[in-house]
Amino acid sequence: MSESTIQIALVLPDLLGTYGDFGNAVVLEKRMTWRGIKAEIVPINYGQPVPDSCDIYVVGGGEDTAQTLAVKHLREHPGLQRAVTKNAVVLGVCAGIQIFGESFTRADNVTHPGMGLIDSSSHAGGSRAIGEVVAEPINGLFAGPLIGFENHQGRTTLGPAARPLAHVKVGTGNDGSVEGAVQGRIVCTYLHGPVLPRNPALADMLIEWATGTKVAPIDLPAVTSMRAERVRAAS
Amino acid sequence: MNDSPARLPLRTAAAVKLGNLSSTLSQKMGLGAGGMIGGRVALKLDPQALGRLTQGRRVAVVTGTNGKTTSTMMLARAVGALGEVATNHSGANMPDGHVTALSKQPDAPYAVLECDEAYFPAVAGASNPSVAVILNLSRDQLDRVGEVRTIERSLRDAVNKLQNCTVIANCDDVMVTSAAWNASKVVWVATGTGWHHDSASCPRCGNPIRWQGEHWHCTGCDLSRPHPNWITADEAMITPEHQKLELRLTLPGKFNQANAVMAAAAAHAMGVPADEAVRRLRGVSNVSGRYRTIQRGGRSARLLLSKNPAGWSETLTVVKEANHPAVLVINAQEADGRDLSWLWDVPFERLQGRTVIASGERATDLAVRLTYAEVQHTIVPDPLKAIDQMPQGAVEVIANYTAFRDLNARAAADE
């Protein structure tokens, strides 16, 4: 594969694709292609080895059994972990924040080891958090607000090496006060499924990290109106 | 077999009378079609109403993610060969809808009930069905109904508890097969339906499912595609006696052929000969307004309902045949599911090059999806205005649940 093509690994879409997670890879690919940056999506299915040579890894959400299976696969084929040491950009959505951490404890009180990529641990919360989320990115990391839909039982506590992604204004996120995690070039969020279609500035931040160059904004009127509508509806 | 339903206990009879009265009032006052309110009142007055109202009748319960209303209508038509059938026609598929339908036809010896997946255990438990039809299971309204595997487990537990019930199950659907696997009597139907995105891993043991053509098996346990008793062939079906019957349906699409074969197998289990079942269900043409065509200023707009990724994927295949302009209508009310993430699981890329209008209460969310699918479009939130902006001729209108319901009601009022 030529050096100049940015490869977006869509990690285990057959297991971790419950909520339209494909959308995140599509948005990254289109926003690069439209700017003349060569990009392609590389789906990595269950049973296949995980390459360590991709530039961006997108990991989605899954149901409990699928999530357990995914972690097992990713620990047996540690391409993603190797890629992280080589500075790859990683987006972990919903289940991502749980499986990337040191451990996650399910509602049945069984604790599973995570991948140890971010300094966090997750446990089951008392109630399921379902609904629209509005949050403000911390330290102006990207243009906010961060918006999306959450549907999760887990709650996440971050250790000192990880920073939260945003302060929660509406919704629950990690714990009712902060949402997501950033550690090195790994970004995690509880905003499930298509979080990048809703947040083009977050998508562009990942693209800038991966390409090492600044990109100019793209004006998409539908995205602007949709964001305004969602913020209005949530507040 | 009983020829007439058992006499109702006084309490149920009174509850049903009051319930029917509120249905009539609700209709007279223009509050609704009366499909549910009557049942709601009767259930409040007598929580066992559903069990009492089904006593002595031969009951079939139809559930699954997609095709419930159509299959129920087809099955009710077919079972009509045996006698009067009580059925919940208008998609009111929760227990209050069942009570309403049953109390309107107290003497019908047969009942064919469409049932929401989440209510199947309660309804099957109360109504002691002789036939249970499980059409398919795929992702739908994750925020309301829950994840597919949770639904599969609850159907499995419910089906295993049923005595003297024949389960009609789609063996091309891994989730349905798992749900029916241990049932005491199963009739397997090969439907040829194609949504496999929710079954990469086994619902029973978590190991990968391997597909080889139409065959599939779990790599970790004994779950595998059973040998089908009924087979959906191209525009035809093959019966357990190896007889080939032409379907010649009025309704379009492969998924309606699947619905028809499931209904025919269920009717057969209730005692209707296969050829007579097909002859009867073939005539189903307008399912609560679905597939009907409305005329507006030189435009013939065909109304299609699609509620989830598997449904949209099938409908996009149906509209592919002709390159007609398309109006896509999306709402996200409670009954639709508030979460629109599923729009990203629908292959809208197939509409590239067509004239498309994004419509509905959530037209802008759809517009974002179409933008990234590189489908040229405009946004007109009102679906009737959207139809009026299309060129004259044939127009396809695809809408999700509440969008379809509202559009259908407005279109009917205009006619």
From TrEMBL, chain B:
Listed InterPro entries: Lipid_II_synth_MurT, Mur-like_cat_sf, Mur_ligase_cen, MurT_C
Catalytic-site annotation from UniProt: D339
Keyword Transcription assigned: no
Keyword terms of this UniProt record: ATP-binding, Cell shape, Cell wall biogenesis/degradation, Ligase, Metal-binding, Nucleotide-binding, Peptidoglycan synthesis, Zinc
Residues that coordinate or bind Zn(2+): C202, C205, C218, C221
Pfam families for this protein: Mur_ligase_M (PF08245), MurT_C (PF08353)
Catalytic activities: beta-D-GlcNAc-(1->4)-Mur2Ac(oyl-L-Ala-gamma-D-O-P-Glu-L-Lys-D-Ala-D-Ala)-di-trans,octa-cis-undecaprenyl diphosphate + NH4(+) = beta-D-GlcNAc-(1->4)-Mur2Ac(oyl-L-Ala-D-isoglutaminyl-L-Lys-D-Ala-D-Ala)-di-trans,octa-cis-undecaprenyl diphosphate + phosphate + H(+); beta-D-GlcNAc-(1->4)-Mur2Ac(oyl-L-Ala-gamma-D-Glu-L-Lys-D-Ala-D-Ala)-di-trans,octa-cis-undecaprenyl diphosphate + ATP = beta-D-GlcNAc-(1->4)-Mur2Ac(oyl-L-Ala-gamma-D-O-P-Glu-L-Lys-D-Ala-D-Ala)-di-trans,octa-cis-undecaprenyl diphosphate + ADP; beta-D-GlcNAc-(1->4)-Mur2Ac(oyl-L-Ala-gamma-D-Glu-L-Lys-D-Ala-D-Ala)-di-trans,octa-cis-undecaprenyl diphosphate + L-glutamine + ATP + H2O = beta-D-GlcNAc-(1->4)-Mur2Ac(oyl-L-Ala-D-isoglutaminyl-L-Lys-D-Ala-D-Ala)-di-trans,octa-cis-undecaprenyl diphosphate + L-glutamate + ADP + phosphate + H(+)
Occurrences of domain Mur ligase central (ranges): 62-267
Pathway annotation from the record: Cell wall biogenesis; peptidoglycan biosynthesis
Highest taxon listed in the record's lineage: Bacteria
Gene3D superfamilies registered for this protein in UniProt: Mur-like, catalytic domain
Enzyme Commission number: 6.3.5.13
Domain Lipid II isoglutaminyl synthase (glutamine-hydrolyzing) subunit MurT C-terminal: 305-404
Subunit comment: Forms a heterodimer with GatD.
PANTHER family in the cross-refs: LIPID II ISOGLUTAMINYL SYNTHASE (GLUTAMINE-HYDROLYZING) SUBUNIT MURT, MUR LIGASE FAMILY MEMBER
Family as reported in the entry's similarity comment: Belongs to the MurCDEF family. MurT subfamily.
Function: The lipid II isoglutaminyl synthase complex catalyzes the formation of alpha-D-isoglutamine in the cell wall lipid II stem peptide. The MurT subunit catalyzes the ATP-dependent amidation of D-glutamate residue of lipid II, converting it to an isoglutamine residue.
Protein name as catalogued: Lipid II isoglutaminyl synthase (glutamine-hydrolyzing) subunit MurT
Organism: Lentzea pudingi
Organismal lineage: Bacteria, Bacillati, Actinomycetota, Actinomycetes, Pseudonocardiales
